[in-house]
Amino acid sequence: MPSRSPGWPPPHVRFTTRLNHALERVGLALAGRAGTRLAAQLGFGAGWMTLIRRVMALPDPRFSTPRVLGVDDFGIRRGQTYSTVLTSVEDHRVVDVLPTREAGPLVAWLIRHPGVEIICRDRAGSYAEGARRGAPDALQVADRFHLWQGLGRAVETCVAVHRDCLRNPSPSGTLPGTTRPDSGWPQSDSDPVGRQAERKKAAYALVHEMLAQGHSPAGRSPGTWAGASTPCSGTRPPHAGRLDPYKLYLERRFVEGCTGVTHLHRELLADSAPVTYQLVRAHIASLRTVPVDAPPRPPTVRQVTGWLT
């Protein structure tokens, strides 16, 4: 058989081979349009579909059965379709992808690939069964993420059971401080009802001081106050609004940490309350103006869980 010349293969073949290798490396690194921009900077033009075809034409890499196998699920369509990804924990590479997250495919894969010594999995029961049936001699462990996730859920469940201990209500069942007679919420300086009552008291005191000095009341308002025994006698009681029967509920939910107007409005509508979004928003806005000496809001379940973990 004749020997090859030193110039073999021809230059154009060597150039094509090097170009294909370059396209494969660019495609594996970036692919798509980003790979197209890099290829243009390197001096050879290639469309994004060309890079994708070069990557798809590569043979699947050969791998040995990992000693430590990672088993976890991932969502192809979250909430509907899930698959299982198998990884080599020691060298951080994907080994295979199973179509479902049930025990059967995992059992079949482990039987076809003997030699797995440790299976690092999440807490799914199907994975536990699959590992037990497919590799009965392998040690099953949980990775750091799933240990931490399980601990967080356990702590959150425990704190949620004792959520009443986070609150410190007064013996009377109302919040400390001067409260409104109809709502039990601390009265702020911006309360229009409180300001109106103060004005009535001032007018009542002024009119009776003038009468004591011998002045006669002029006009209808001073005469009204002169014939009244108290600042508020003879006046109509405040009109009961549509939101009044639900103010205590809103204030209790506000203290619990639910401050979203939209959510609270939906809760009232679910209870067939004849209230509008504007009424709920106005009342929640008044609750946000809490006095400076008001007690701090109790911590939420999520906050306490974060402190403990």
UniProtKB/TrEMBL annotation:
InterPro entries for this protein: Transpos_ISL3, Transposase_DDE
Disordered: region residues: 166-198, 215-238
Domain Transposase IS204/IS1001/IS1096/IS1165 DDE: 69-158
Compositionally skewed regions (Polar residues) per UniProt: 169-190
Pfam families, per the entry: DDE_Tnp_ISL3
Name this polypeptide is given: Transposase IS204/IS1001/IS1096/IS1165 DDE domain-containing protein
